[in-house]
Amino acid sequence: MTDGWNWRQPDGTATPGNPPPSTPPTVGAPAASGSAADPGSSPWWSDALHDPWRNPATPVAVVVQASPVAGVGAAPEPVSDPDAPGRRGLTPVFLVSLITALLAGALGGSLGYAFAVRGGAGGTTALGSTAGEPPATARRPPDSLAGVAERLLPSVVTVRVSGNGGIGLGSGFVVTQDGYVITNDHVVGVGADTATVVFNDGSTAPAEVVGKDPEADIAVIKVSRTGLKPVEFGDSDTVAVGDPVLAFGTPLSLANTVTAGIVSALDRTFRQGEAGGQVRYYAAIQTDAAVNRGNSGGPLVDGGGRVIGVNSVIQTPAADEETAGNVGLAFAIPINQAKRLAQEIIDTGKARRTVIGATVGGTRSGGSGGVRISAVEPSGPAAAAGLQAGDVVLRLDGRALEDPSDLIALVRKYAPGSVVNVEYRRGSERQAASVTLAADAK
């Protein structure tokens, strides 16, 4: 196929056409023979014999492709240009959408968590660290102070009494499953025969007064309830100064109160009461655990949760009981003494009082210590051991005596039948004797 401007038939007959365009000669160089710049030297189509795409013998025809008619001939094969912009598939669009959704979800989740930790959309600042915090319901070791308190509180009660002498409030602790409770005599000593007991869960139960020992300040009441949890008793004779202790009770009407301290002293002897009134003698365990009005009758326990004393008295510089408060000087009746008296009250309705069979009348002349015996009962324990009026008792089982109440309080601590060592001075001679204590004939 050609543009038709100088075409000849194969037999040499020229075919009219448009004259060839004039080609200006190349400046400075002669035209080469047979080149395109010299058309007269060779037919223009002579090179076509060597053109693999041109056969000079083939007749030339111009074909105009008609539009296909329905039903006539086959449709031409579609031709596509690889360089032409084409229609893209949906896969890239889907992938982009998926990745965008995942990123948006992750970002939204992160922001939501951050707002939740900070307390909401307000963006408040989170204080402290949550790393390593124990669960809210974590239990303390049984031998820790918290573990001891948890174990003892169900056995500690508030005691409320009312009677002719007024209204009294104190504490107590359960000693049997069927409802016996130990408390102080001065808690129930208002002339009442009945009382109300409040447990640590807030439930209440009526109780009756079983018996009491006013001089030792111990009383037993009985609660109308069974299945209670009694305390575990310790041994007050093995307590040492410095041992950790907890005091339980209802000080100043604040139920379920627990305070901590140590044993400050042992066998702290004193008496309370005036002539003509009730006189009480104590050979007490001293503690610095906070004890106030209302703690009376509650338990003093050791580090293992065993009861070693009954909280009873506080020392205070206050002028009257109404304004008295804790100053770190509190006293508890040793549990060995309280338990013995409570057992006797439960078994017989009353407690026996331990005596030495002698009357003490004053300190040794010169104030150098010891207590002087003013009289000896002929058939009493002191007389049986060889003690006489005028002897000065210096020590009882190694404990120094300075006041007559010291001897009485220490003797009351022991059970009838106990054997104690007594050091005394007769004249200028120092002697010792073993005395077997007895129960008062009363």
UniProtKB/TrEMBL annotation:
It comes from the Bacteria. Belongs to the peptidase S1C family. This is PDZ domain-containing protein. The keyword Signal does not apply. Residues 345-403 form the PDZ domain. The keyword Cell wall biogenesis/degradation does not apply. It holds the Pfam family PDZ_2. PROSITE patterns: PDZ. Residues 1-51 are annotated as: Disordered. Residues 25-43 have a biased composition (Low complexity). The chain crosses the membrane at residues 93-116. Keywords: Hydrolase, Membrane, Protease, Transmembrane, Transmembrane helix. Gene3D superfamilies: 2.30.42.10, 2.40.10.120.
